[in-house]
Design a protein that fits this description.
One of its GO terms (cellular component) is basolateral plasma membrane. Keywords: Cell membrane, Membrane, Symport, Transmembrane, Transmembrane helix, Transport. This is Major facilitator superfamily (MFS) profile domain-containing protein. The protein has 503 residues and is mainly alpha-helical. The chain has a single domain (19-199, 243-448), classed as MFS general substrate transporter like domains (Growth Hormone, Chain: A). The protein has 20 helices and no strands. The chain has helices at 19-39, 44-51, 55-71, 73-83, 85-103, 109-138, 143-151, 153-184, 187-193, 211-234, 237-244, 253-266, 271-282, 287-312, 321-338, 345-374, 379-408, 412-458, 462-485, 494-498. The longest helix is centred in the last third of the chain and has 47 residues, at 412-458.
Length: 503
């Protein structure tokens, strides 16, 4: 199995201390970013009636929001690599807040697409990426637990916002609700303030050094600086770009498997959430009870994420975390296949419980499995590349699901399609990860065999070479001593050679 990644940062993460405040900030930032796409679905039925839109048209609001949130990943990663997580999250909080406040004055469905989908969605992308990256900088051994706790922010916010949104709608309408929600998003700025930068400690040079040693060290430093300058001149544009966004990841087999599996999954991942409340209202369930289904889902999701993180951190699961992730996806898809059986409120509540369990498991492992594959050093680039590719299925998934509902007039076919798609994605990842691990073992074995063969070809090991060099050095030294002690025969007289006294 693949080793636990993350030891390539150049320093040892603290795995605690201020890191827990960072987890709290990520909890708030990711919670608000992920939750809004789900929580605003409470208003969809009323907005649909207000603008006279179809199911497919109204689904574009969440679809654009999610797509832009993921498409902004590379930009967010580049900004984090350049400026750090703290200023990026603070700016993202301001941008998402402005988008929601302006959306309160919309006069058409197109304006909602722009203000909520594009502006607020891009703000959420600036909140999401840095929150995930900064946890990888503060945690290594406890990283699955930290990720699980941070990702639990989404269900906590959904569980709170779903009934609150219905209450806000009854009191202020959807326009007033959007204005209040925009002000609430300013809390992302507070979350960003908790993201204190962390960097490896610089070793201080010893004070008691000789002048000669200082000069030598200064000369070496100057030579290293000259080499760095020459290397920078020789770098191509692509190499410079790879420093902020590593495109060589597309040659990484494990990364490609993860990417393909997630693209298939995200085609159907969010559509069931978008249409859960409208489906309940379609069955004749009242507004508050329909909105409460999201709270049931979110409460179970809230427990599922940190619990999954704790399980994933155990010595039995962590080396096999890719298999655990695949099984979670299959379970999630199976829940959607069973949803059409639920024909009343009790059945939908049971579905919401299992849906929340499967959804929480997948979300808790989503970024941990990626970091396990590529390592913490390349994780920032990996997240950016994954999210920009995943924005395509997120963009077309919910509208396609809405088109199925419009065409058939029934929600069950939409749930069947989503369930089958997600199960297929889980099976794909399960089989391909098995293949990837087999290939890694084979490559590692071939590498070891090659090293042994090289040693045998050379005749002796590196240790033997060192010993041989030492022996030769000693022999040379002995010969030099003999030459020094040997008398100068040419300059000696015959008497001295015969041992007689010249006197």
């Amino acid at each position: 199995m693949a080793p636990v990644a993350g030891g390539d940062l150049g320093y040892t993460p603290p795995d605690g201390g201020w890191g827990w405040f960072v987890v709290l900030g990520a909890f708030m930032s990711m919670g608000l970013s992920y939750a809004f796409a789900k929580a605003i679905t409470v208003f969809f039925k009323e907005i649909q009636d207000f603008f006279g839109a179809s199911y497919s048209e109204i689904a574009w609001i969440s679809s654009l929001l999610l797509a832009v949130m993921y498409a902004g990943g590379p930009i967010s990663s580049i900004l984090v690599n350049r400026y750090g997580s703290r200023p990026v999250v603070i700016f993202g909080g301001l941008l998402s807040s402005i988008g929601m406040i302006i959306a309160a004055f919309s006069t058409s469905i197109l304006q909602l697409y722009i203000f909520i989908g594009v502006i607020a969605g891009f703000g959420f992308s600036l909140n999401l990426q840095p929150s995930v990256i900064v946890i990888g900088q503060y945690f290594l051994k406890r990283r699955p637990i930290a990720n699980g706790l941070a990702m639990a922010g989404s269900p906590v916010v959904v569980a709170t916002l779903a009934p609150v949104n219905q209450l806000l709608f009854d009191s202020y309408g959807w326009r007033g609700s959007f204005f209040i929600l925009g002000a609430l998003l300013l809390n992302c700025c507070v979350a960003g303030a908790l993201f204190r930068p962390i960097a490896p400690k610089v070793m201080k040079s010893k004070k008691n050094k000789g002048k000669k040693g200082d000069k030598v060290e200064t000369g070496l430093m100057e030579k290293e600086e000259m080499k760095m300058v020459e290397q920078k001149k020789e770098e191509s544009c692509m190499q410079k770009f790879n420093q902020v966004l590593d495109l060589t990841l597309f040659k990484h087999r494990g990364f490609l498997i993860y990417l393909i599996g997630n693209v298939i999954m995200f085609l159907a991942f969010y559509a069931p959430i978008v249409f859960l409340t409208p489906y309940a209202k379609h069955l004749g369930i009242d507004e508050y009870s329909a909105a409460f289904l999201l709270s049931v889902l979110a409460i179970v999701d809230m427990i599922s994420r940190p619990a999954t993180g704790i399980i994933a951190n155990t010595k039995w699961i962590r080396p096999k975390i890719q298999y655990f992730f695949s099984a979670s996806i299959i379970f999630n898809g199976f829940c959607h296949l069973m949803c059409p059986i639920a024909g009343d409120y009790v059945g939908l509540a049971v579905y919401a419980v299992f849906f929340g369990l499967g959804f929480g498991m997948v979300c808790a492992l989503l970024f941990e499995t990626l970091m396990d594959l590529v390592g913490a050093k390349r994780f920032s680039s990996a997240v950016g590349l994954v999210t920009i590719v995943e924005c395509v299925p997120l963009l077309i998934g919910p509208p396609l699901a809405g088109a199925i509902v419009d065409a058939t007039g029934d929600y069950k076919y939409m749930f069947y399609t989503c369930g089958a798609t997600i199960v297929f994605a889980g099976l794909f990842l399960l089989v391909m990860n098995f293949y990837n691990y087999r290939m890694l073992e084979k490559e590692e074995k071939e590498k070891q065999d090659k090293e042994i063969e090289m040693k045998e070809t050379n005749g002796f090991s590196i240790e033997d070479k060192k010993q041989a060099v030492d022996i030769v050095g000693q022999e040379v030294k002995t010969e030099q001593e003999l030459i020094i002690d040997k008398p100068d025969l040419e300059n000696c007289s015959k008497e001295e050679l015969n041992g007689s006294d010249p006197k």
